[in-house]
Amino acid sequence: MTPQISPQDLERWRNPDWRVRLAAWWEGYDLSRLPRVSDRSALRNSAARHRSGPVDMVGTAAIPAASAVASSSNPALPDPAAGGNPELDRLALMQLDRHGEPVWSPARSEGAQLLWGRDMTGPEEAAWMVDSVRSFGLNPAKSVLDLSAGLGGTARALVESCDTWVTGLEASPLLAKLAMDRSKELGLSKKAPIAHYDPEHFNQAGSFDLVMADRILHRVRDKDLFLDRVGDCVKPKGGIALFDYVIDGTPGSWDSWNAWREEEPMEVYPWTATRMADELTQRNLDLRISEDLTRLHRRHIIDRVRKLADTLAAAVTPPAPVLAALKRELALWWARLRVLGNGLRFVRYVAMKPA
């Protein structure tokens, strides 16, 4: 017996809202080929489902402005995208991509948090990052330098979990500002300060018990200088934890490889896994761990994308700039997924500095 589809499900299939369209776009389906019912019927049924009115999203056009995203499980996020903050716009323009557009905008910071979670800009959750460095025995007497602070989620999680002191540095002036504002809001401006820096001219003063960086080194052209400075920042018996992309043999598809490099906002310069290990050893560092985390990294990405549907289902429609930035974020990570495990690997390196 052929199963019957309910009228509600049929209507949802024929006239998907923007959440369904976004999910279908990520999965590679073309919903524009589906038959449509009449506009009047679509409006009537959409109004019955969404009291706030109809929503039309084809690509990123024709989306009405809405209030900040809010849900019971995800507190309302500030909406700099809708506020037109001149200071944030100025900071965004300080770091431009190869096409002359801001690498990070207020809208992208909001879209990234919808995808990765509050105060996060990547797939590795703050709790997972804390667990990955727990073996360093962080405590109130120790200090950490985070060279990939982003919005400060990991830095503040380390403070709250280990009661340690974390100095966060971030390559994006905009993210550094938003991260520091958040630390001030939570009363952690002294234990988790975040500041802007240029990885190409890294010259941090001071010494730390742990220096960590997530997906930074493959974007640095002068890696030799960067690693020299990292070594200078580590105390004797201190540690280094690097999470980064490295080349693994020949790409499975040169088309995918070139598409990934083109999709990246900035140029990328990944080393091979062997060279990365050799460069750490040559700096008189004791390389303890060289662990391939590609599969886990892919799972983290895919799991967060799947959770995005639930996040959006519980959210008020985000403003159009945020949705456009979210679509851009998904396109970037889709390009990365296509090469991860097919010429590119995600590896964790842990090294110690001798006494």
Automatic annotation (TrEMBL):
Start and end residues of each Methyltransferase type domain: 145-239
Domain of life: Bacteria
Keyword Transferase: yes
GO terms classed as biological process: methylation
Cross-referenced Gene3D superfamilies: Vaccinia Virus protein VP39
Record InterPro entries: CFA/CMAS, Methyltransf_12, SAM-dependent_MTases_sf
Annotated GO MF terms: methyltransferase activity
Entry keyword set: Methyltransferase, Transferase
Annotated protein name in UniProt: Class I SAM-dependent methyltransferase
